[in-house]
Design brief:
globular; alpha/beta; Rossmann fold; 18 helices; 3-stranded antiparallel β-sheet
Length: 424
């Protein structure tokens, strides 16, 4: 586990008590807040196609035709987003907060999402065994008294060829938040139980009292005007563990699952730090770095980039999965040797209505459009469809270095950049 000095464990007693604290906390703040819109892509199988490409499988899909998906700790909207993304799947959304589930259920009804089931339950008590083809659990297990026990529950719920998408807090992202949480706890007199009604106003007062011109004051200034839900989730969560790449990999192995590769997640993309690989100019040092196993290389990146490293958002599979894990170098080589077509479909956008639902007529638009990155946009526009990807790079005089190819792969042929699909 990470350094306990940078974790908020004042209320981490037994798991049942922490489940109760989390249920009360998220019942109060109903996180995340309602989005302005939901999207549904018309290509029903596109989500499954891109999921396979995320882990380097270029032909077909890693999911069955009608997969079972579990969104474990779904909050107010993640299960619905998943149901819309995978319309051929049966999606189960579980959460401790009955209030969050009620918000999700109402929105699902307004959109007619009939492939979604919601359950008021704890990951720790669910007890699923070998049930799911795909499990999504982001921002959840680190809020448990024992996150490894929660991760074991997720691992047990996977089918032999199942895929787990997991996000946990990056230790280096949480140093300031954990320091603030401990300072607030001391100001409040070391309470034995969290009380959001008292904590929220006191936390805002403590931000105003923070000495200026420090890293802490600069960070807190970004939070000062946040709505209560975002503010509380970031700074007042009752229990918080965090990890590094190394401690996450070790925890996963202890639960019988292995780390595959990182997700091209929306938060890291928005900060332009989605790639876990450093660009090292020193040729000898670069050779040493690139020769390391993936997880060791990513751990070096985690340590050297520290607070600027990406989110700890990774894919995992069972150690006994018959589908072999592909190293990142092999994924990139296969990417270069694969022929692609441009994705061409439409999406429906359901905007939030005045009554709070999303049932109005959707707006239709082409999907996915064009990439934002200039190099990716150039390659996308000049793609030689049907020919190996490396032929397009050769024609454009773009050197196919590992770093460049990996970033083009992330930007063009993953769930976070669904512009190209492999020719089967």
């Amino acid at each position: 586990m990470a350094n306990a000095g940078f974790q908020n464990l004042h209320f981490a007693t037994d798991q049942r008590s922490v489940d109760s604290l989390n249920s009360e906390f998220y019942g109060h703040i109903k996180y995340p807040w309602p989005p302005w819109y939901f999207e549904k892509v018309q290509r029903a199988n596109l989500g499954a196609c891109m999921l396979a490409q995320d882990i380097g499988y270029w032909s077909g899909t890693v999911l069955p035709a009608e997969p079972r998906i579990w969104v474990a700790g779904c909050g107010t909207n993640q299960a619905l987003i998943t149901a819309l993304r995978f319309p051929q799947a049966r999606v189960l959304g579980s959460d401790l907060s009955a209030e969050s589930l009620a918000v999700c259920a109402a929105n699902a009804r307004s959109l007619g999402a009939g492939n979604l089931e919601l359950k008021h339950e704890s990951i720790n008590q669910a007890g699923y065994t070998g049930c799911f083809d795909y499990i999504i659990c982001t921002g959840v297990i680190h809020h448990n008294a024992d996150p490894i026990a929660a991760l074991s529950q997720l691992a047990a719920a996977l089918r032999p060829e199942g895929l787990l998408e997991l996000m946990v807090y990056n230790q280096f992202h949480r140093i300031l938040t954990s320091s603030f949480q401990t300072a607030l706890w001391l100001v409040l007199g070391r309470p034995a139980k969290p009380d959001l009604v008292k904590e929220l106003p006191m936390a805002r007062r403590l931000i105003a009292a923070c000495p200026p011109d420090t890293l802490m004051s600069a960070f807190l200034a970004t939070m000062a005007e946040s709505p209560d839900a975002r503010f509380a989730d970031a700074l007042l969560q009752p229990v918080e563990h965090n990890f590094t790449v190394e401690t996450l990999q070790r925890a996963a192995a202890g639960c019988g699952i292995e780390m595959l590769t990182f997700c091209n997640d929306i938060f890291s993309r928005s900060s332009s730090v989605a790639d876990w690989n450093l660009e090292i100019q020193d040729e000898e040092l670069r050779g040493i770095y690139m020769a390391l196993p993936d997880a060791e290389r990513w751990q070096i990146t985690n340590l050297l980039l520290a607070e600027a490293s990406p989110m700890l958002w990774f894919y995992f599979q069972r150690l006994d999965c018959p589908r072999p894990r592909k190293p990142e170098g092999l994924i990139c080589e296969e990417f270069l040797d694969t022929a692609f077509l441009r994705v061409k479909t439409e999406k429906e956008i359901f905007f939030r209505q005045l009554n709070g639902g999303y049932g109005g007529p959707p707006t239709r638009s082409p999907f996915p459009g064009e990439p934002n990155d200039p190099l990716a946009r150039r390659v996308f526009g000049d793609l030689d469809e049907g020919a190996p990807f490396r032929e397009t790079l050769r024609r454009l005089a773009i050197e196919p270095t590992f770093s460049r190819c990996n970033r083009l792969r992330l930007q063009l042929a993953t769930s976070g950049g669904p512009y190209l699909e492999a020719v089967e």
